[in-house]
């Protein structure tokens, strides 16, 4: 029986289901602590028992580094180091996607107060300020007024260290539903559209509080396909925003949660992932 | 193994804990200090627990 390492900081809701689905489909999927691999020895003895590695580290830093070390030891890894590195950096990802003619939101890279002032002068309010490296919707800030924007930037300057100060400023795409697409291999397994509800303007899963409906259509499939062409096959959470001119790709997650989209799909997500793992290891 | 209840000690506040069957990698919240603890290992019904972060700046899903 094929044996795949599920490398993660813990077993959460998603990992539990993946392990159960693997058991039901003749694949052994075992949790491996992402903080205890000590990789680097040429043949990666810590991964010697496994036919492949699936990375579910919540941390981009850990995920990208482990994928790099495992690939160097010629162990098949999902997602690839290149894909994780592309996803961890909102600027790199958008540059890659844009180069492939995929629609992404307009943005300005803000590394200083001068950049911030220039971005505010170039793009009309309301705007969104977000860290280049960051996730779970944290520190993503809606700027409605020019006068509060400067004070918000005081906090970036004052409390952000090094890479935490790198930010994007982009138009607030308020038509506002976001679509989360779950991909395994090349297959779009589930997609659902979210709208923020209640006390927070953001609608991402980590922050809770939103309404949900199924989202489908040829435009979504086409974008998802093109994103996979850029990143290579893998397991992704692709976030789209709906705009009057069509969908744009906001970001791609490397170890996507799927609880929120699970019941909008006719396909069983864990089973789809396991089938893909079988394909990769066969 | 016939044990249906596992036992351990919170490494942070030393409270005695019992849990239903659980496997390494799973997490639980210490009822006393509320920290998130991960099961690192289970040896003869005894849990080895470690405090883990609930969110870090470079996390994304
Ligand atoms: N330009 C924007 N216009 C409107 N809403 C936005 C914009 N950027 C972000 N948001 C809202 O904020 C949420 C979090 O933003 P984003 O996904 O970019 O950050 P993140 O930290 O990578 O989140 P996650 O890791 O949960 O996907 C989005 O799901 C969306 O609801
Ligand atoms: Zn405790």
TrEMBL record, chain A:
The GO cellular component terms are: cytoplasm
- UniProt keyword Cytoplasm, yes or no: no
One GO BP: SOS response
Q: Which SUPFAM superfamilies match?
A: Glutathione synthetase ATP-binding domain-like, PreATP-grasp domain
- Top-rank lineage group of the source organism: Bacteria
| NCBIfam families per the UniProt record, alphabetical | rimK_fam (TIGR00768)
Task: Identify this protein by name.
Answer: Alpha-aminoadipate--LysW ligase LysX
According to its UniProt entry, this protein's organism is: Actinoplanes cyaneus
Automatic annotation (TrEMBL), chain B:
Task: Indicate what this protein is called per its UniProt record.
Answer: Lysine biosynthesis protein LysW
Lineage, top-rank taxon, reads: Bacteria
* Native organism: Actinoplanes cyaneus
């Amino acid at each position: 029986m094929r044996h795949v390492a599920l490398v993660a900081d813990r077993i959460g809701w998603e990992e539990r289901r993946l392990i159960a689905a693997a058991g039901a489909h003749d694949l052994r999927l075992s949790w491996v602590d992402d903080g205890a691999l000590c990789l680097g020895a040429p043949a990666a003895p810590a991964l010697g028992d496994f036919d492949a590695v699936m990375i579910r580290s919540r941390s981009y830093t850990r995920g990208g580094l482990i994928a790099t070390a495992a690939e160097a030891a010629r162990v098949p890894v999902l997602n690839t180091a290149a894909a994780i590195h592309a996803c961890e950096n909102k600027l790199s990802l958008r540059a890659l996607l844009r180069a492939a003619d995929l629609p992404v939101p307009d943005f300005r890279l803000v590394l200083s107060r001068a950049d911030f002032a220039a971005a505010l002068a170039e793009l009309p309010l309301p705007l969104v300020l977000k860290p280049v490296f960051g996730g779970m919707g944290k520190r993503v800030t809606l700027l409605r007024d020019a006068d509060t924007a400067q004070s918000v930037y005081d906090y970036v300057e004052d409390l952000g260290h090094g890479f935490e100060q790198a930010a994007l400023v982009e138009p607030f795409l308020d038509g506002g539903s976001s679509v989360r697409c779950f991909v395994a291999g090349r297959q779009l397994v589930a997609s659902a559209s979210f709208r923020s509800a209640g006390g927070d303007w953001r609608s991402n899963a980590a922050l809770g509080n939103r309404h949900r409906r199924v989202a489908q259509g040829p435009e979504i499939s086409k974008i998802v396909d093109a994103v996979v062409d850029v990143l290579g096959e893998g397991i992704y959470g692709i976030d789209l925003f709906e705009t009057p001119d069509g969908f744009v790709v906001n970001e791609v997650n490397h170890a996507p949660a799927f609880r929120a989209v699970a019941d909008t799909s006719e396909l069983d997500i864990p089973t789809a992932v396991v089938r893909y793992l079988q394909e990769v290891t066969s | 193994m016939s044990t249906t209840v596992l036992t351990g000690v919170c490494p942070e506040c030393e409270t005695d804990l019992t849990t239903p069957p659980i496997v390494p990698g799973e997490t639980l919240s210490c009822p006393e200090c509320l920290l998130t603890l991960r099961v690192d290992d289970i040896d003869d019904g005894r849990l080895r627990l470690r405090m883990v972060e609930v969110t870090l700046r470079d996390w994304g899903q």
